[in-house]
Specification:
alpha+beta; Immunoglobulin-like; 2 domains; seven-stranded antiparallel beta sheet; four-stranded mixed beta sheet
């Protein structure tokens, strides 16, 4: 219907109002419908930011290790913020003039990320390690860690493993995510500079163990509390005791039904449980050594291994 400008006819105010209201309602409905079909951006977990496809690697030694390390740090920051355009961050996104600037910013379609620079100041390795751990705690996307000593190099420092007491890093030159000590040349002892994402980066909430699968092995009571082998998996992924969870027991100091309680730690929270049976140690041993075993020695005759000079001892070669 064509729309013409000008004064509306006398007496058409009510009709015009009704039309305007109907149009407004239609537009509101369309907007709501469009909004409802737009997928909500989901922030990645720390584990998802460690996938191989997140990292870009050097095709051989290019002398641009800081650029690659910064790219990987920023891609993780975007993922943690639920930025759907995280893949648009590439090495070409990083401003460079024969090196990584002390301060710069990188943008995607929906966000901007500022990067700033600092120096490692600890005088001992213990002080430097504590300093780097504090930086990792404050920067969930990791930091670019650089050494100018010996062979200058940079890696993306990702975290600290309490279980192995070592830092984890990604080295774009080797293409591997590993212990920092396995990277090309950067170490806690020689690192002297770092870059970090100064813009807010969402630290992911710990993943709940509520739906974890807890598998408990055989438990036998033999005068002291039974400690069975416990395995925990979440979504098919095995978890590590002491790093991802801790285990305690209820009722494992007597024969009968006991309970294994798994409590999340590190990147995991909440708890999961599994009941198990504690068997009588004496009965279990008798069941294994009792019926079904026939002697090969005639009645009244001692075993050959114990007769005569030079006979071999049990378990030892003659």
């Amino acid at each position: 219907m064509p729309i013409t400008a000008g004064r509306p006819p006398v007496g058409s105010g009510v009709a015009a109002a009704r039309v305007a209201f109907a149009c407004a309602s239609l537009l509101a409905g369309l907007a709501l419908a469009l909004f409802s079909v737009v997928p909500e951006a989901r922030a990645a977990t720390l584990a998802e930011t460690l996938a191989d496809e997140v990292f870009v690697n050097e095709p051989g030694s290019t002398g641009r290790c800081t650029i690659y390390a910064a790219t990987n740090m920023l891609r993780r920051a975007a993922l943690l913020n639920g930025d759907q355009d995280w893949e648009s961050i590439t090495t070409s996104s990083i401003p460079s003039s024969r090196g990584l600037p002390f301060g710069f910013s990188v943008g995607t379609q929906g966000a901007a990320y500022a990067v700033e620079h600092g120096y490692v100041t600890g005088s001992t390795e213990e002080e430097r390690s504590a300093e780097l751990r504090a930086l990792i705690d404050e920067n969930p996307a990791g930091i670019v860690l650089y050494t100018s000593t010996g062979r200058p190099h940079a890696v993306t420092l990702l975290g600290y493993d309490e279980g192995t007491s070592s830092f984890t890093a990604h080295d774009s030159l080797t293409g591997a995510t590993s212990s920092l000590d396995e990277c090309v040349s950067v170490r806690v002892s020689n690192a002297d500079a770092y870059w970090y994402v100064a813009s807010p980066v969402s630290a992911p909430e710990p993943t709940s163990l509520r739906n974890a699968t807890v598998t408990v092995g055989d438990a036998v009571y033999a005068g002291k509390a039974a400690v069975p082998q416990v395995e925990v998996a979440l979504g098919g992924t095995p978890l590590v005791e002491g790093t991802d969870y801790a285990v305690s027991y209820v009722g494992n100091d007597a024969v009968g039904t006991a309970l294994a309680v798994v409590v999340g730690m590190g990147d995991y929270s909440g708890a999961a449980t599994s009941s198990f049976e504690v068997l009588d140690g004496a009965k279990a041993l008798a069941g294994r050594c009792g019926p079904g075993v026939e002697s090969s020695t005639p009645p009244g005759q001692r075993p050959a291994a114990s007769r005569g000079p030079g006979a071999g001892a049990l378990g030892l070669a003659a």
